[in-house]
Write the structure tokens for this entry.
Amino acid sequence: MTTRIVDVAHTAAAHRTPAGPHQDLDAARQAVATGLDVDDAAELIHGDRLRLGPQLEPGLSNERCNQGGWGY
């Protein structure tokens, strides 16, 4: 079940991040936060977080990644 949640979170973030008619950065941030809540070691979700880059809210970037000891 964890893998499926992470996969859906990744799909949502990947779909909502690029510029275009489907871009919704709030939805992408929520998907990343949900994915990290479920599995804080999921590489797909950390990659999505990095792709959001400067568009991330500082609280999400620092809070979620530092909890897992990733520190970036």
Remarks:
- Confidence is low (pLDDT under 50) at residues 68-72.
- The radius of gyration is 11 Å.
